[in-house]
Amino acid sequence: MTKSRRRRITTVVRYAVLGAWAIVVFFPIYWMISTSFKPDTQWFAWPPVYFPSPPTFSNYMNVWFGVQEYAETQYIQSLQKPLIALRNSLVIAFTSTLMAVTFGAVLAYGVSRYRILSEVRMFQLLMLRMIPPIVVVAPLSLYYSALGLLDSMFGLIVIYFLTSLPYAVWMTKSFIDEVPREIEQAAEILGASRWRTVFEIVLPLIRSGLVATFLFILILTWSEYLLAFIIGKTQAVTLPVELSKYQGTSEGRVYGRQAALAVGITIPLMIVGLFIRKHLARGFSFGMVRR
Amino acid sequence: MARIELTGLHKSFGSVIAVKGLDLAIEDGEFVVLVGPSGCGKTTTLRMIAGFEDPTAGEIRIDGRVVNDLEPRDRGLGMVFQTHALFPHKTVAQNIEFGLRMKSVPPQERKRRVREVAEMVRIGHLLDKMPSQCSGGESQRVALARTLVTNPSTFLLDEPLSSLDAKLRRELRAECDRLHQELKRTFIFVTHDQEEAMTLADRIVVMREGEIEQIGSPMEIYGNPVSYFVADFFGSPSMNLVSGEIVHEAGAARFRAATFEVPLPERLRDAPRGRATLGTRPEHVRVRSSDEGAIKLPLRLVEPLGKDTLLYFDDGSERAFVAVTEGFAMAEELEAGARVSLDLDPRRLYLFGADGRRIAAVHS
User: Fold this and answer.
1) Is A27 inside any structural domain?
2) What are phi and psi of B220, to 5 degrees?
3) Does B114 fall in a domain?
4) Are B207 and B262 in a shared domain?
5) Cα separation of the two ends of chain A
6) Do A119 and A237 reside in the same domain of the chain?
């Protein structure tokens, strides 16, 4: 077999494997979007309907705006008001993520430059994440009810902030480690204070890393279900909790509505990802500081 | 203007001692080069002066004032790093301007001085570029400009040229020299390159294992090394160092090596018997056309360099015994394998004892 022939075969195999993988990954997303545009008669149709005909916005209108006239065969009045859940989710996820990344970066700087946490402590910090959430849910809700944090956005922000802090520290630390000390020392000897050095030199240099960390944690908090379900009961309902309410209703399973809601949960993250994809590629590939 | 004094300076990292009881006074406007092999403590010393490392013991004074507890930015020094350490996310102009901004210099003034300094190190055309678009030599010029613009009393240079190729290194060496002449500031330059030290320094400080081995002008260091280590470190090609022993016969001292024996000059008459090393620089070895030379060695290799020709002889050790002759004549005349008669300049013979120290002064 000649070299060029072998290379061609390798290419074909590579694309075949990647293509198969892409189908596995994208099919559920495609199915969700497709279902969200299907009239209710096609939700359960067999053989399955791949392309809704005719496509309809009724699911969206019904789920997001509670418009009844679009509900053709079923009457589903949205009791939980998804728009409010969307607002809750935005506030909770963005606030807790922003806090986690900010504090995480400061902490990581201390770990990287001043070794304020030993290797063991750093590992223990990460271990915190390995506790299954269900284990802490019961004591947590007791504490929270004593503190009056149950069913409040603030309560969820606090718990999300705390649980994602280990990720933030670990990820940002790896980026800070990449910034040569000499660059900071150069700034220092030129007259910059330590804080000035951090804000004017270090943070801009790890910007891509911070953005990648931000998105990573945002996805986690945005889609978190268990804690939100236990703590957020009625006043601080988030989108994943909202979504679960469509799983079983008195009318049976309303896949079209649920899909319409799921699309609304997924799209914002995709938009954020698209906006910052330049940073993501750089952030996840590390080593962006030229030595 | 700055006179820098180090007294009893000591630095250890855990059980590793980097600098041991260093005493050194650097005069105002002097160009001092700290030189030595890697791990000799030269960079640690420089970093202590800069304020990036705290001395374990001892004092650092700048103009008489103890600065041990001062932050780097309060010491009035400027530093150029081996890796240039430019800010990758700022343009060249912003890099240079940084120090002025930290000192709250007004924007108009900043702009003027950035341009002035950029012209001085010939990077005026680079001001709008990013550091990643600059070559190694250009980056180092930017780093120099960034330090220059803050007008420090002392320049600390930590192997600033070691990441550059040979030609650029020579060019920037000349640049450093010119800046020193023009600015008349104190320069402390760290390098492991003896050639850099020789060409730049007013005074060379040779360091070894955390201690000062010798301090002196380049000519003193070259012509009057106090130890085997210094003799071996300076000079290219390096000094011929032949081990053997000193013997006394009929009131005269002789040096006996594995493959030859030479009488020692009068001034080395009292050298103690025993194992020793004989040193002589390649340029002080004369090739004799006749058979009258003091020693005869087989020629191993001829290396014509253009202006000079290097002759490598086999003296029975791992290291070749080298002689330098001018021009090409010898390259054409001699062939590898021939036994060649050589004379050693008796005024330029060095003897080192078994402890590595020099046995007696050469220039009597």
Assistant:
1) yes
2) -65, -45
3) yes
4) no
5) 43
6) yes
Cβ atoms of residues B278 and B264 within 8 Å: no
How many other C-beta atoms can be found within 10 angstroms of the C-beta atom of residue A39?
Answer: 18
Residue type, A156: L
**Residue where a domain terminates, one of A70, A92, A115:** A70
- Same domain for A263 and A131: yes
Res A68: pLDDT: 62
Collapsing DSSP to helix, strand or coil, B313 comes out as: strand
- The per-residue pLDDT for A246 is 75
- Indicate the residue type of A135: V
Q: Is B351 helix (H, G, I), strand (E, B) or coil?
A: strand
Residue A252 is classified by DSSP as B
Domain extent for A237: 82-285
Nearest to B343 by CA among B290, B275, B278: B290
Domain boundary among the residues B225, B249, B271 is at B225
Instruction: Please indicate whether, in this complex, the C-beta atoms of A188 and B72 are within 8 angstroms of each other.
Output: yes
Distance of CA A92 to the CA centre of its chain: 12
Whose structure tokens read 């090409």? B328
Q: Which of A180, A185, A190 minimises the CB distance to B102?
A: A190
In this structure, are A121 and A222 located in the same domain?
yes
Q: Is the predicted ipTM greater than 0.90, yes or no?
A: no
Q: What is the pLDDT of residues A210-262, one digit of tens each?
A: 998 999 899 999 999 999 988 887 888 888 888 887 766 565 677 888 899 89
Give CA B219 to chain center in angstroms.
12
The count of C-alpha atoms lying within 13 angstroms of the C-alpha of A182, restricted to the half-sphere facing its C-beta, is: 18
Chain B residues near residue A196 by CB distance under 8 angstroms: 102
Residue of B nearest to A288 (CA): B88
CA distance A287 to A284: 9
Q: How many CB atoms lie within 10 A of CB B58?
A: 17
Please name the residue that has the structure tokens 């030599």: B137
Chain A residue numbers with beta carbons less than 8 Å from the beta carbon of B190 are none
Whether A173 and A256 map to the same domain: the answer is: yes
pLDDT at residue A73 above 50?
A: no
* Degrees to nearest 5, angle at CA B265 with B260 and B266: 145
Contact: B85, A180; criterion CB under 8 Å: yes
Q: Is A206 on the interface with B (CB under 8 A)?
A: no
Are B220 and B243 part of one and the same domain? no
The whole-angstrom separation of Cα B147 and Cα B100 is 10
Chain B contact residues (CB < 8 Å to A): 50-52, 71-73, 75, 77-79, 81-83, 85-89, 98-99, 102-103, 131-132, 143, 146-147, 150
Q: How far apart are the first and last CA of chain B?
A: 39
Is A228 within the bounds of a domain? yes
Q: What is the mean pLDDT of each run of 10 residues along chain B (364 residues)?
A: 91 93 94 93 95 94 93 93 92 95 93 92 92 91 93 93 85 89 93 92 95 95 93 91 89 87 85 90 87 84 87 87 84 82 89 88 46
Q: B167 with B287, same domain?
A: no
Domain annotation covers residue B230: no
Cβ A163 vs Cβ A131: under 8 Å? no
Tell me: do B46 and B185 sit in the same domain.
Answer: yes
Q: Give the domain range for residue B17.
A: 4-225
> In this structure, is residue B364 part of a structural domain?
no
Q: Do A204 and B131 touch (CB under 8 A)?
A: no
Record: contact A182-B83, CB cut-off 8 A: yes
Has residue B149 been placed in a domain?
yes
